[in-house]
Amino acid sequence: MIHQLKELYPSLQLLDQSTLSSDSAYKWFSLSDGVIVGIHETELEPRDLSLLATFLTPYNPLFPTLTEEEKKWSDVVNPALLTEENKITLNSPYRFVHFSIQEKQISPNAFKQAVQDFYAQHVPILWENDHQGILVEYVTKEDGPISYEEIIDVLMSDLYIKIHFFVGPLRTILDGAAPHYRAMVNGAKTVSLYSTKPVISYTDAVPYLVIDQIPEPLQNEIRQSVLQDYQGDEETMKMIEVFVRNNLNISETAKALHMHRNSLQYRFDRFYENTGIDVRKFHDAMAVYLAILIEK
Question: From which residue to which does any coiled coil extend (predicted)?
């Protein structure tokens, strides 16, 4: 096939996989035997690209070559491509973990090599672009889930990479994997608007995802009705946010804020007197917490 293509497209060349070097003026394709060929864009009309894509696989040399497992997962999250032949057999629960690296800090190939060391088995990576994508983590009873806080510490100290993880929930079936995948990709964008935490779980992100769906006029109404005169009071907002994050535990919150617990109780009493909302009660605390997130 290479000989025939060479006759049609004299500029055809093979990709040097040892150096992964490529000319940006070339369009690249993967043959069925794994060989990567490139054709100079000056020899390709739109109809040529369409024709070549019907029997060759378009290839981006910036990204690692997809493994067979990654190809199957790519088909799983793109239902139109899924067939009986490329279905995946699950042997353990899995979860999608969205990652976002600061642009131009590390190549996709180098990142893939770096993260694989943290897992007991190969982790498929589905790239959205050259700095964002989804890790497919298999979670076995023997190994348990990975701590992404630890991964970040290592990547930042060893490779000086700034990265964020949005960790999805465990799933045991493939039904609904495609919409869940897309929800994780879109959800990561939403979360980045509200939180700067390097690692955030799906459950921690739920308030952000809910707020993002609330129309702006209703957001303003909630903020004004709940926070009232405390709008813009950063000290009180921080106090209540820390209280919620410490599971409404007075002692732990006082410790985190370096306050005496009686002083904290007094501040909560004052908030109740001024708003009629007692943040020591779960539903009141959640309403105020959502209003604080809107305020941000």
Answer: none
